[in-house]
Amino acid sequence: MPTRAFLTVDTELMWRHHAAGLDIDAISERSLEPAGVGIGYQLRKLAEHDLKATFFVDPMPAVAYGIEPIKRVVGAILEAEQEVQLHLHPNWAAASADDRTKHASFELIDFTLTEQRELIRAAADLLVAAGAPRPIAFRSGSYSASDDTLTALAELGIRYDSSHNGSEHPWPSAIGLHERQIAPVEHRDVIELPVTLIEDRVGHLRHFQICALSTGEMRDALDHAVRTGHAAVTIVSHGFELANRAGTRANAVHVHRFDALCRMLADRRGALVTTHFATLSDLPLDHNDVPLGPSLIRTRIRQAQQLWSNLVSERAA
């Protein structure tokens, strides 16, 4: 059976732009369509390579700004025949457009089981109000989730979670699984799809995210997954990740990585099948998938790229 590839894009209005006092149009632009390399660019590249992706959309900024900004991004994703599932940064639950200092806790794991369930329920309802189908998959903001989170998801009928990130374990990624768990597994009545990891140096884990791995590391991680018969590869990106932190210019390093990743997935489509949660079936569970082992050369190349990214590509326009 081919390895399932879950190409996921966490899609959210960025708190830093809200806290800086920008108006909602600027917040939306810099979060969702920054410098021409946001959601629209990513959707076009996915279509060009005939790839499926899941956009985990956070609807909670509607508490402060209304549902329209969320409706627009949900509509664009669905029109492109990609998938919308649920993302949640709980700090927005107490946010206000008039008082930018107000917020709830930034970590979902700081809330009780009952509070988590109600936050997830409210977020799911907002996502549906924005035009999305009822979600069946979830990722917590900052990977902040615990066994209580999975219990709440199960009680709400959300079948899949993708919050476990061993490189952020045990805080804020606090689900009761081993840090090296990368294969899909049923846990607390939910199917957990952990974020894929590599070991970039001995004993140190790094997650498969566009801004975290070099093109070479991504290529080797994909080939390792195919060669060793992994059940799944779960890849993370963000709607804003291909631009600099200010959202004012493209980050050439990250754009190159995203473009290269799309080409690599397209080139390997017989062995790696990009997949939507809504059409998922026969997903093997409890495989003994292990992260790609360390390589000093790969790590040094990525560190050099990161230095260029931070010194050059991250400069504001």
Describe it for me?
- This protein has 317 residues and is an alpha/beta fold.
- 36% of the residues lie in helices and 17% in strands.
- It contains ten helices and 13 strands.
- The protein has helices at residues 15-19, 24-32, 39-48, 62-65, 68-79, 113-129, 147-155, 215-227, 252-267, 296-313, and strands spanning 3-11, 54-57, 83-88, 137-140, 145-146, 160-161, 173-174, 185-187, 190-192, 197-201, 204-207, 232-238, 272-274.
- The strands form three sheets. Strands 1, 2, 3, 4, 6, 8, 9, 12 and 13 form a nine-stranded mixed beta sheet that branches. Strands 5-7 form a two-stranded parallel ribbon. The protein has a two-stranded antiparallel ribbon with strand order 10-11.
- Strand 3 (83-88), helix 6 (113-129) and strand 4 (137-140) form a beta-alpha-beta unit.
- Helix 6 (113-129) crosses helix 7.
